[in-house]
Amino acid sequence: MNSPNHVLITGCSSAGKTTLLDELWRRSLLTVGEPGRRVIAKGVDPITDLKGFIQEAEKLAVTDLQEAPPDALCFFDRGLLDALAAKERMGGPTLENSLGRGRPYRQSIFFADCWREIFTQDEGRQHSFDTARAESEHLKRRLPQLGYKLIYLPKAETEERANFVLRELGLG
After folding, report:
1. Where on the phi/psi map is residue 28: left (φ > 0), alpha (ψ -120 to 50), or beta?
2. Strand arrangement of the beta sheet that strand 6-11 belongs to
3. Mean of pLDDT values over 9-36
């Protein structure tokens, strides 16, 4: 069963997801930050300890879901599916085995496709565009297999993207 109030925004690294979540927060909507960024802030380095990084991101994503109010619309920047997909890519259990019958997010997921023109690396994002694209392609292929519908975000200014999301949800 999908959680209709848990809205996931996922996709390629450095494709504007966090900026979009910041805009939604500015509009007084509930948002939850990307687990990976918060794990890095705690000192776990994905370059030297990828397995530990993914484990911590998964734990944090589970906690985020448990703490999100079930009756209020809440937007998640990446989340549990991203962590489980990363584990799967590393040879871990499949997404189906990790999730069982549960589906922690609304059936329609907003997807930020790779956007080379805005891709940047920083302290928390040291991987290449090609690595980001490979992760994104894995999500694009696997999430529909779990019953999720991908809604591609327009490659547009942040305000336009936020308006698009709200219109798709019947809120704008």
Report:
1. left
2. 30-32, 74-77, 6-11, 108-112, 149-152
3. 94
